[in-house]
UniProtKB/TrEMBL annotation:
Organism (species): Pinibacter soli
Protein name per UniProt: Lipoprotein
Taxonomic lineage of the native organism: Bacteria, Pseudomonadati, Bacteroidota, Chitinophagia, Chitinophagales
Alphabetical list of PROSITE patterns matching this protein: PROKAR_LIPOPROTEIN
Length: 200
């Protein structure tokens, strides 16, 4: 996949560190790479999330959902169809779409101490729903690079209510969506939805 170029970067960085203590210190702190380029392919978040949903479906894994509002916590089993809808929140809208891709900037941060590469997508356009998207990848020179986590920050409005969302996907384990609703003339309400298909 496209992010293999950063795996190579990380491996080269590690090789340099064997001969340079100063470089080693810098690598442990992390190294940022500006990959802003209108022709570059963004990390395929939609394809990855869909593959996770397909994995859960094909293995018939039990899916549990816990909804938390205030002090109330309601656990329940979840059907595959509902899980697919929740998963879609992680790639809707898709920042790779030509209509909005130009408004996003990609940077990559290599941290050898883990080791990992984090792809970050940000925008200065306040009208876009996804404000930030982070993909944490564990590079592997032998097997396929492995996604560890995906994190998003969203903001949108419906009627007289504004919504702020923080979404977190842990590969092969679980996901969580925290939604804060702020009515124009009312109290703020926060709802947390936790979904697990691994028992965690």
């Amino acid at each position: 996949m496209k992010y293999l170029q950063y795996s190579i970067f990380l491996l080269l960085l590690a090789a340099c560190n064997n001969n340079n203590n100063t470089a080693k210190t810098a690598a442990n702190q992390g190294t940022a790479i500006d990959t802003a380029n209108p022709n570059i392919d963004f990390f395929p978040v939609a394809d990855y999330i869909k593959s996770q949903v397909h994995m859960v479906d094909s293995m018939q894994l039990p899916i549990m959902k816990t909804t938390i509002v205030g002090k109330d916590s309601v656990p329940a089993s979840m059907k595959q169809e509902e899980f697919s809808k929740i998963a879609a929140e992680f790639y809707t809208p898709d920042i790779s779409d030509a209509g909005i891709k130009k408004d996003y900037k990609e940077t990559a941060f290599a941290d050898q101490s883990i080791p990992s590469v984090t792809f970050t997508y940000t925008t200065k356009n306040p009208s876009l729903e996804i404000l930030r998207l982070d993909v944490l990848v564990k590079p592997d020179p032998v097997q396929s690079d492995k996604v560890r986590t995906i994190y998003l920050e969203k903001f949108f409005e419906k009627g007289d209510t504004s919504f702020t969302q923080k979404l977190f996907w842990k590969a092969d384990k679980n996901c969580q969506i925290i939604t804060t609703a702020q009515p124009k003339n009312g109290a703020e309400i926060t709802k947390i939805v936790k979904v697990s298909w691994s028992g965690e």
